[in-house]
Design goal:
Elements (H helix, E strand, L loop, with lengths): L1 H28 L7 H15 L9 H24 L19 H12 L15 H31 L9 H26 L10 E4 L5 E4 L4 H10 L20 H25 L3 H27 L23 H14 L14 H12 L10 H21 L4 E2 L2 E2 L2 H27 L1 H5 L6 H16 L14 H31 L15 H32 L2
Antiparallel strand pairs: 1-2, 3-4
Helix pairs in contact: 1-8, 1-10, 2-6, 3-4, 3-5, 3-16, 4-16, 5-6, 5-7, 5-8, 5-12, 5-16, 6-7, 7-8, 8-9, 8-10, 9-10, 9-11, 9-17, 10-11, 11-15, 11-17, 12-13, 12-17, 13-15, 13-16, 15-16, 15-17
Length: 563
């Protein structure tokens, strides 16, 4: 019961903050006045001059998508070079602690991972990266990739809000404003709070401590606070340490855990309000947020129920407190479950417990969210177009039932738009299932599951590709993914999940922007009613079941039925 009080307070806080933050994002998106303008306008103008950006010159959907892809490619190349050349960078940690070699395939995978906000990490940060690699490379990419995603979210919303428009805005303007008005101020405040709570920010050598048993222990140091808040705010998730949010330096208290979870969810939730305000259909925005909340509660219920029960193997010991394997005592089952559900549905793999130690249904809940895409809060920018794309599918199905042309927020979903929506809906199952099948039939792919063959091993493989396609980064820890096969195939999934889906969303938004808004009539299917909410919920669940139920049956479901 105590955990459900915590879950309720958390969800109510997210929903309550969605409106003020959504209104603020509306001002940022439309270049309206904010309280930060006197401070930030000079910096904005200076950046435009340096970058050669003409702020009033807007872009077509194709140009906008091209700039987004070009920006992403530049980020990948830059980070790849930093990682490959990190040995010549000054500062700590000492070379003796860098025991994981930065191979070409690992550097390429990591560069794509951080440039796509996936932050899939097939390495341990404290034994692989120098401080400057973390600061110049990873922290910078957490800001830049998040700003790029938010910019695409703004463009997608404009596509639904505008009429008879050939443009969606200017990518470089949206990028700069996302950085200056949203990410930098919030990250500065959040990072200071983390430092106050005990998260270190230093460039000190690793500490050699002497334990009570007379042994020595190496305690990693570093500029941890610089990475920890922006990784959550930008829905990135990559940890400074291998243990990520379970490490006491990265996430020392329940307060830092709560702040991190709010940082993950509030901005993606707020974008539903921004959509409602810009399309002048605020009820439709609240409906999307309510559907997200219902799915979120469903995931919490399944995962909490699974982890409250002691493992079947230990049932005879009459243990209390649920399944504590792989969980930190300072968080317990409740905060571990909340973090798992938040991070799996919000495209942020910032874990504070080891999901591979979860019960089968405890694994099923986050895995299902990953496979459904970013429809519950989701990534920064990606979450809003993911849920709207599913709403377009629901509007199409609803229109078939009443024999009318599908409409959503006053825009017709014609055959041309339907093609792009269908491609978007089919992309995730096509990529995830194909790569999973390839790994299962390949000796290298099977060998990586190590000591977990059978259903759990299959779940580890499926989880990995679902996580990368969702640009999430969570993993079941039993998979040894640092090899050429997995570094290459997960890279493909990350690129498809980030740039493939974003390009499809932008193109669809461009087509909607060119339309005039259709007047509401007696035959229009309302998209802001409880009936449409149920239709959208059913569409998401049905689409997920049709695409992935057989794969889930081979993993956590069969493991649950036959422990």
């Amino acid at each position: 019961m105590t955990s459900w009080i915590e879950y309720t307070i958390f969800l109510v806080t997210v929903v309550t903050l969605a409106y003020p933050f959504g209104s603020y994002l509306t001002c940022v998106c439309e270049r309206r006045g904010t309280f930060l303008d006197p401070l930030l306008r000079p910096f904005e103008a200076a950046l435009y001059r340096v970058l050669g950006v003409h702020a009033e010159q807007e872009m077509s959907a194709a140009t906008y998508a091209g700039c987004f892809l070009l920006f992403g490619a530049g980020c990948v190349v830059l980070l790849f070079l930093i990682l490959m050349l990190q040995r010549i960078l000054p500062g700590g940690p000492a070379d003796t602690y860098l025991t994981t070699p930065m191979t070409v395939d690992l550097a390429a995978n990591t560069a794509v991972s951080f440039a796509t906000t996936t932050t899939w990490q097939a390495y341990a940060g404290e034994s692989t990266l120098r401080y400057l690699s973390q600061l110049i490379g990873l922290v910078a990419q957490n800001f830049l990739a998040a700003a790029g995603g938010l910019a695409v979210g703004f463009a997608f919303i404009r596509g639904l809000a505008r009429q008879s428009s050939a443009t969606l805005g200017n990518f470089w303007v949206d990028l700069v404003r996302s950085l200056l008005w949203v990410l930098l101020p919030l990250a500065l405040i959040g990072s200071l709070v983390l430092i106050w709570q005990g998260v270190p920010l230093n460039l000190s050598p690793y500490t050699l401590a002497h334990t009570l048993e007379g042994r020595t222990q190496v305690i990693a140091q570093g500029p941890v606070a610089a990475l920890e808040f922006i990784k959550n705010l930008g829905t990135n998730g990559g940890g400074f340490f291998n243990a990520n949010g379970a490490h006491p330096y990265a996430n020392p208290t329940p307060l830092t855990n709560l702040i991190g979870m709010l940082a993950i969810c509030v901005l993606p939730a707020a974008l539903t309000i921004t959509l409602g305000q810009l399309t002048q259909r605020l009820r439709a925005g609240w409906l999307l947020l309510s559907v997200m909340a219902v799915l979120f509660v469903g995931g919490l219920a399944v995962c909490d129920r699974a982890e409250r029960m002691p493992p079947p193997q230990l049932a005879d010991l009459h243990l209390v407190g649920g399944n504590m394997e792989g969980k930190e005592v300072r968080f317990g089952v409740g905060e571990s479950v909340l973090t798992t559900i938040v991070t799996s549905n919000a495209s942020t793999g910032s874990y504070n417990a080891m999901q591979d130690s979860y019960q089968p249904l405890g694994v099923l809940a986050p895995l299902t969210f990953l496979l459904l895409g970013e429809v519950v809060f989701g990534g920064l920018g990606a979450g809003i177009y993911s849920i709207v794309m599913m709403a377009l599918v629901a509007a199409f199905l609803g229109a078939l039932m009443i024999g009318r042309t599908p409409e959503y927020l006053g825009k017709k979903v014609t055959a041309a738009e339907t093609r792009w929506v269908a491609l978007y809906a089919l992309a995730t199952p096509a990529v995830v299932l194909t790569l999973t099948a390839l790994a299962v039939v390949t000796p290298t792919g099977r060998a990586a599951v190590g000591l977990n063959p059978g259903a759990r091993g299959f779940a580890e493989i499926l989880f990995a590709y679902a996580s990368c396609m969702a640009n999430n980064g969570l993993a079941l820890g039993g998979l040894d993914a640092n090899n050429v096969f997995y570094n290459t195939t997960t890279l493909v999934a990350m690129l498809a999940g980030r740039y493939g889906l974003a390009a499809l969303a932008i193109i669809a938004a461009g087509r909607f922007a060119a339309q005039r808004r259709v007047a509401t009539s007696a035959g229009t299917l309302p998209v802001d009613t409880p009936m449409f909410a149920l239709l959208l919920l059913g569409t998401i669940v049905l689409a997920g079941a049709v695409s992935f139920l057989p794969a889930l049956a081979m993993g956590p479901i069969v493991e649950f039925l036959h422990p």
